[in-house]
Amino acid sequence: MSKSSSSRPVPSTADVVIIGGGVMGTSIAFHLAEAGVRRIVVIERGELGSGSSGKPIGGVRAQFSDPLNIALGSRSLRAWRDFGQRPGADVRLDEVGYLFLLTSAEQAADFETCVRVQNDLGVPSRMIGPREAQQLCPYVSTDGLVAAAYSPDDGHARPGLAVQGYARAAARAGTVFATHTAVTGLDTTGDRVTAVHTAHGRISCATVICAAGAWSAAIGDMAGVHLPVRPVRRQLAFTAPLVPPAPRIPFTIDFASTAYFHNSDDGLLFGLADPGQAEGFDTTWTPDWLDLFRTAARHRAPALADMATTSGWAGLYEVTPDRNALIGRSGTVHNFLYATGFSGHGFLQAPAVGEIMRDLHLERAPFVDVTPFSADRFTTGAAVRPEIHVV
């Protein structure tokens, strides 16, 4: 795969510069290259997939409340299933389903409404009772459980393998991957970006696409484009190998606490969104957050509360004010496009968003109208679209 080392200069010109070498940036590069776009440069300040895409396992689902997110999730699920043929890599997709555990009548009513919307859009989700939830996931306690929402088409896959699969295919088509290369500034003239400055040289370019995840606000500032993305640390942990092995279970989420767990190699993976987590770029893994998970597990999946963990991982969510993505073209800097702020949903939506960014660049209509996800919605008074299914 073509890439620049710390001593190798970047190309001096490009048709498209993509900032960010995670799953979003590599998906965009693949879809552009597949469509015949040439002279693509992907700039990544670390290794490919070293940011938020570095998480060991990523959920893939179409269970959302917002119809746009449902469409992006559904389209992407089909792409994940076909990934072995296009672009041609094994992402270890495991279609075990997603199981949302609901502990109040209000939650159940909200999810019932969402399931109707999902069904109308072709998603085979359904509401189920506590006993069926326990049959799907034997760890679940039915005590206090009101209902659950389940879709068998959802599951999980490996983001790192997806990044490499997209990148190898894009590189075969001529895309240059400039790793260990920081963006230091952007030149703008009138309503256009004319060049990207990096630690290894200046690139004159026709289009810039920001896919920088949690670091996108700073890139937007360089272009004079407001991208309201904030970094928030999220942590997960792995159990010791389980004997006997864990049953094959859905990606299971206790919605009230956000505690989640699923299979991972020879054990389980635990996660939880710490409500007290301060914003910032710190990705130090601090196992004390596990106390929150164990407290939630004692109520909802008691056998997990005392399982030994051996290691963990911390990464960054790229959070927007309404927990929905920023996808579009700047209204003021017309050759500056962006796909960021996915608030934990970037990996699962990456194939669909790669298609959309390809089409926006080629000035053709995408398969779904993403205008409501324009970053301008926070400055023009347009209606925001809060997403309920946030973990």
**Terminal Cα span:** 34 Å
Q: What series of H and E elements makes up the topology?
A: EEHEEHEHEHEEHEEEEHEEEEHEEEH
User: What is the approximate shape?
Assistant: globular
Beta-strand content: 25-35%
Mean pLDDT across all residues, rounded? Answer: 95
Helix content: 25-40%
Low-confidence stretches: 2-6
Specify Rg, calculated over alpha carbons.
Answer: 21 Å
Structural classification: alpha/beta
Please summarize the sheet with the most strands.
9 strands, mixed
Number of strands: 19
Q: Can you count the helices?
A: 8
What does this structure look like?
This protein is of the alpha/beta class and 391 residues long. It has eight helices and 19 strands. The protein has helices at residues 23-34, 67-81, 105-120, 130-136, 159-172, 216-223, 290-300, 346-361; strands at 3-4, 13-19, 40-43, 58-60, 98-102, 126-128, 147-151, 155-157, 176-178, 183-189, 192-198, 201-210, 230-239, 251-254, 259-264, 267-272, 309-319, 326-329, 336-340. The strands form three sheets. Strands 1, 2, 3, 9, 10, 11, 12, 18 and 19 form a nine-stranded mixed sheet that branches. Strand 10 (183-189) and strand 11 form a beta hairpin. Helix 1 packs parallel to helix 5 (159-172) and helix 2 (67-81) packs across helix 8. The radius of gyration is 21 Å and the shape is globular. The model is unreliable at 2-6 (pLDDT under 50).
